[in-house]
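Could you help me review a protein record that somebody else here produced? What it holds is a sequence and that sequence's fold in token form. I have pasted the whole thing underneath without changing anything:
=====
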Amino acid sequence: MLTITVKNISRRLHETLKRRATMAHRSLNNEIIASLEVAAGLAPLDVNQMAFDATLMHKVFKGEAMPKEIDRFKKEGRA
């Protein structure tokens, strides 16, 4: 097996990955590998995982997004 190191990830990304790992009963490392495989197109899209992700995001984000917040979310996504 090969090893990589990822540096300078945001606290938000780290917390999200940890939360997803816990909810999927995986280690953080295995959650990162699973996410990378999907992102690289090496794993088929899993409808159950997508529903799980949507539920998780619904729990993380509460309330309505105001236009300023939506603009901030867009800018963060481009970073």
